[in-house]
Structures are given as structure tokens and as C-alpha cells.
Specification:
Blueprint (H helix, E strand, L loop, with lengths): L1 H10 L10 E3 L8 E10 L2 E16 L8 E7 L2 E9 L4 E6 L3 E6 L34 E9 L2 E2 L5 E3 L1 E8 L2 E9 L15 E5 L6 E8 L1
């Protein structure tokens, strides 16, 4: 864990203390994100999370008009490591380049033959995960993504689609060599480019993140 915190500081993605290096997708939205030190499922309501303290964890708090978080730093080809913590039935996601989403949702207990593209580790509207590696709500989970950005020539014509080379959820490979011909929905405006920010979805459900690393 100490290694991941050090990498975050170097890359300026999340310093564990505030939202430096990030911006809200909608500046007029309700307060959506809070920094806490610990998080747990609310014993009175498993669809809610309780956070305490003020350092180390990014918590999406309840909000009527919530918004996504966008990194100020931009990336092309990259590897992403993220750890997340879900409430029951919660829904979030990580958008590579602000365009191509990997679903983060409570899919615990769903049989492999019932998985759809909207389940945890899926690519919305495109590809269901190969297997259900999702842990039950109230446990920290890990996701590792190897991503290849779309390629363009000097005339800005796209020569190759974006590709998820691999996605690993809790140590199990759930996607491999999946081309993404277009943004997966709810993406940032502006079309496809050779680089873009990391975006964390906050407009759906309550979720917590830590150790967000891009290299």
C-alpha cells in the first residue's frame, strides 16, 4: 500500500488529502466527493456507506445532483490500478480517456452464464466480463487495466480503435483484447483523440476509491 501512495503523489492523481489534480465534471452539482480515512457499509442500510476521518480514501457521498471526477492529467496508452469499495446494488465506473468505460458495480453472486456488459468488469454495450470475479459489498476490490489508446494519422484520421488489452478484477482476468470502436456512453464531449483524462463516475451510486494509479 505504501508503494501505491507514493506513486499517486508522484503522478498527482490523488494525494489522499484533497481533490488537487482533479476537477468536477459539473461545477454546479451538489457536493459529491469527500476524503475519509475509513469506510464501511451502513449497518442500518446496506445501500449506503459510512466514512470516517479525513485522509486516504475518496468517498462518493449521497447527492441528489451528483457529478463525475476528471483528472487534470491526460493519458494515452496506459496501465491503471484502482481499488474500490461498493455498497449493495451500487454502480460506478472508470472511464479511460474520459470515453471508454469499465463498469464497476455490485455484481456479486451472478452466475457466469448470466453476466451482461453492464456487470462489474464489463464494457458497457459491448462486452460482458469473461467471469464473475466481483466480491460482495463491503469488501475492498482491485481492478487492473491495460489500455491502448486509439491511433490517428497526421490528418487526424483514426487508424486504429481503442483497445482494452486486458482487465483483471480481483486477480482474475475478465477482459482480453477487446477493441472499442467508439465511446461507450456518458463520455466527455469532443470526440475521440489520442489522449484524454481518467474519469471516475459519480453520478450513479455511492462508492469509495483508493490507490488510483496510472502509469
Amino acid at each position: 500500500m505504501k508503494l501505491f501512495v507514493w506513486l499517486l503523489a508522484v503522478l498527482g492523481l490523488f494525494n489522499g488529502k484533497d481533490l488537487s489534480g482533479w476537477k468536477l465534471r459539473d461545477e454546479k452539482a451538489d457536493p459529491t466527493w469527500k476524503i475519509v480515512s475509513s469506510v464501511k457499509v451502513d449497518p442500518a442500510n446496506p445501500k449506503k456507506l459510512i466514512g470516517e476521518g479525513s485522509e486516504g480514501i475518496l468517498l462518493r457521498i449521497p447527492a441528489e445532483k451528483a457529478t463525475d471526477l476528471i483528472s487534470e492529467k491526460q493519458f494515452g496508452d496506459c496501465e491503471v490500478h484502482v481499488e474500490f469499495f461498493l455498497a449493495k446494488d451500487s454502480n460506478s465506473g472508470v472511464f479511460l480517456m474520459g470515453k471508454y468505460e469499465v463498469q464497476i458495480t455490485d455484481s456479486f453472486g451472478i452466475p457466469d452464464n448470466k453476466l451482461q456488459a453492464g456487470e462489474c468488469g464489463g464494457i458497457p454495450w459491448l462486452k460482458a466480463p469473461l467471469t464473475n470475479a466481483c466480491k460482495k459489498p463491503g469488501e475492498w476490490q482491485t481492478m487492473d487495466i491495460v489500455f491502448r489508446a486509439p491511433m490517428f494519422n497526421a490528418a487526424a484520421k483514426k487508424m486504429a480503435n481503442a483497445k482494452f488489452v486486458s482487465i483483471t478484477l480481483n486477480g482474475k482476468k475478465v477482459q482480453e483484447n477487446v477493441e472499442v470502436p467508439e465511446p461507450t456512453g456518458s463520455e466527455l464531449d469532443g470526440g475521440e483523440w489520442a489522449s484524454g483524462p481518467l474519469m471516475i463516475q459519480g453520478n450513479e451510486g455511492v462508492v469509495a476509491f483508493r490507490n488510483i494509479v496510472v502509469k
